[in-house]
Amino acid sequence: MLETATQSRGDLSPTTLLTSLDGVLQEWLPRQRWFAGKGLPITELAVVSMTELQPGCLHLLIRSRHTGERDGCYQLLLGVEEDPPPHLQHAVIGRADAGPLQGLTVYDALHDPRSAALLLERLRTPGAAGPLRFERDGQTEVPPGLTPRVLDGEQSNTSLVYGDLFILKIFRRIQYGTNPDLEVPRALGLEGCARVPAPVAWFWTAEPRGTTLGVLQPFLRDATDGWTMALQALATGDDFTDESFELGRATAEVHLALAEVFAPGLPDRQGGRRLASAMITRLEATARQVPALVPYMAQLRAAYGVVGARVPGQPDQRIHGDLHLGQVLWAGHRWYVIDFEGEPSRPIAERRRTQAPVRDIAGMLRSFEYAAHARRPWQPQWAQRCREAYCAGYASESAWDPRKQGALLRAYETDRAVYEALYEARHRPDWLPVPMAAIDRLAKGI
Ligand SMILES: Nc1ncnc2c1ncn2[C@@H]1O[C@H](COP(=O)(O)OP(=O)(O)O)[C@@H](O)[C@H]1O
Ligand SMILES: O=P(O)(O)O[C@H]1O[C@H](CO)[C@@H](O[C@H]2O[C@H](CO)[C@@H](O)[C@H](O)[C@H]2O)[C@H](O)[C@H]1O
């Protein structure tokens, strides 16, 4: 155990710790789904914060620097032991070959039920551990001793499910400040919005800068996410328009609640021009990393014109920011919306700004197309029917109809497809053809 290591091997400090961890982390980090610096050499690792939650369990924020622009700060919970038990072998990161942990095995402690239980216990009893702060809503009862399990599946973060009652999302790539995935569901919960599971407890670090680290919320036990449902419908040839219509209604409801809770902002002509130029900048930056975009540049730039010319009308407001079929859960015959983090690669200040609600609609419309592309043969008509039903559902609940803003929707779909091209190139290169098919369609004005 680390206790033995620290007692017998001298002081553990951020600097000495790095001597032990540098080698193992250099090798392990780039293999993690949530690591943004894949493919770029790590020029430096630094320990931003280190808290020993209990002997053998270290909470760390690690900054990684690269030759490119993809520096990042990551949250890790590490276990350190001489010989981790067999059920933790899959979580082993490596053996430290120098420094105070020399000879000890380091593993991802989120896979260790003992550490997971410790986190839950901390969340149940608000307080501090070093710079870490644990808080809760004060109303929801969280029983002790719930059995933890790590949720598997494609995720940008890591989630632990406790006794099928609660889910704790541990943010992996950290940006300093309040994460909208705590701020928004909390505000919506206080307002009584039943479409969004409200945070029950959360933890953050006082240093650096009030940064959200994890959120516990009720686990919707028999839920299926929209992506899985859409793929099932495609596989069986089932219609998905009723669900799409309902999803449009749910999106509109969440938008209305967001507009109630957070002060809206009115778009102005200058704001539109700034936004159009930001979209162009993003397109150009992405094309430097995804050369397949280059032949489409002129047509894509032109699609953003309408954003620049946008007249005051539909007010900007807080939105979801990364809405797609994987962010909605179907449980008890209704849709719930989760994961209000926004697009993880964007700066947090930008994600917390008011934006056009059409951005979310475009995200979901793209998602129907994604699903239709994930199955062979590619079924564009299926996607088209879902897209239509989704917009109709949205219009039935909202004061405006997205179908009446076709050009604006197209501009946002284009921006979203550009984001997706970069996301796929970085995280799942095999998927790149999916957003590229949309780029081709959008560039042709179809
Ligand atoms: N409240 C919940 N109830 C049930 N499952 C959930 C809940 N919140 C998240 N999940 C599951 O966890 C997955 C990942 O959650 P999400 O917040 O999207 O994390 P990430 O940002 O890491 O992708 C979801 O796709 C869903 O399957
Ligand atoms: O991890 P998050 O859910 O926060 O979102 C990121 O990863 C998503 C993939 O898991 C990615 O979504 C893209 O693929 C989805 C299918 O896997 C599809 O439903 C979405 O429409 C498509 O954008 C998302 O863009 C990214 O931010």
From TrEMBL:
Gene3D superfamilies: 3.90.1200.10
Residue ranges occupied by any Maltokinase N-terminal cap domain in the UniProt entry: 28-112
Entry keywords, A to Z: ATP-binding, Carbohydrate metabolism, Glycogen biosynthesis, Glycogen metabolism, Kinase, Nucleotide-binding, Transferase
Pathway listed: Glycan biosynthesis; glycogen biosynthesis
Enzyme class: transferase
Annotated Pfam families: Mak_N_cap
Reaction(s) catalysed (UniProt annotation): D-maltose + ATP = alpha-maltose 1-phosphate + ADP + H(+)
Region entry Disordered, spans: 130-149
InterPro entries membership: Kinase-like_dom_sf, Mak_N_cap
UniProt EC number: 2.7.1.175
Record text on subunit structure and interactions: Monomer.
Family according to the record: Belongs to the aminoglycoside phosphotransferase family.
Stated name of the protein: Maltokinase
Lineage: Bacteria, Bacillati, Actinomycetota, Actinomycetes, Kitasatosporales
